[in-house]
Amino acid sequence: MPSATGKIRYAVVGGGWISQGAFMPGVGQTGNSEMTALVTGDPIKARDLAAKYGLKSYSYEEFPALLSSGEIDAIYLATPNFRHLEFAVPALDAGIHVLLEKPMAISEEECQAINAAAERSGAKLMIAYRLHCEPGTVEMIERVRNGEIGDPRLFTATFAQPVDTANHRAQSGFWAGPVTDMGPYPLNAVRALFADEPIEVSAVGVQTPGRDVTTWDAVAVTLRFPEERLASFTVSFSGPNTERFQLVGRKGEIEASPCFGFGEGVAISYRLTVDGETEEFKAQVVDHFGGETAYFSDCILQDRQPEMDGEEGWRDVRVLAAIERALESGQPQRLDPLPKRQGPTREQVRSLPLAQVPEYVNTKAPLES
């Protein structure tokens, strides 16, 4: 049951950078959500971060007690990817709704187990595709859907960051590396813009000399879609901060940058060129995490299924797993065709003011300073 004020009560599971720098401040921008608990294995965060937000703290070992406490309605799950299954399934089985960071899990089988738990209990499951609630992103998707650039044929994207090699993302193999940490952004974008699913995957990866990363730190991916459409994207842990994509249709194109990031001064922006005429568009700076949380809480309160559900999460992980196989084998990987999905709509957009981020407690951003 929601709180006395009608708000959905969240526990934050994992007190790292993304929780402290994005989700926790963003909750305060909503009118339908609040935090009541923190689950962490760090005693400093259990004391100081919990105190900062007035939360009750639990250790990871105490998670079952939290689920039966009556203190929460939902969890925001932001542990390292390999622990998603460990916390998502018990929560869902207990009837606790789950807002789960992407990628959904580290295998298709884990995704299926999480989805099965949601099906058993009826609890809501949403994958944290924050851009599905961001106004500029949804506007671009709707322009393509409405035929403004004609039939979309080609997509290319580059997304790079200088990730600190001491961060766990650089030291935990493929399922924490750039393909799974950053790849969901261009992958999910092209799936929405093409309104279809890839049927073949190829990939080439390299390890940049002098970089201590335990997997390919730069990877180029090519996706073949039905109707002979092509998409490609490159992701890297070893580049300067850059993010952009280009979508080419039969009548025009969209060039977007910034297109994946969030935070202070980051306004999703794009240029639309049709029949040689170019217009520029710049969305307002909004709180992506507050927006997705407000949308998920609305789904819970109104008993509606979120658009970015476990099926959406599995569809991305299916492709990520194929990329891994392509890297290991050097061979293209075929994927079975899937039914099309509706994708994000304007109804999901939440334009909330960007929250101020307080000083971090025993964590830091994963990028080199």
From TrEMBL:
Residues 328-355 are annotated as: Disordered. Signal peptide: none annotated. Residues 139-255 form the GFO/IDH/MocA-like oxidoreductase domain. One of its GO terms (molecular function) is nucleotide binding. Pfam families: GFO_IDH_MocA, GFO_IDH_MocA_C3. Residues 8-129 form the Gfo/Idh/MocA-like oxidoreductase N-terminal domain. PANTHER family: BILIVERDIN REDUCTASE A (PTHR43377). This is Glucose-fructose oxidoreductase.
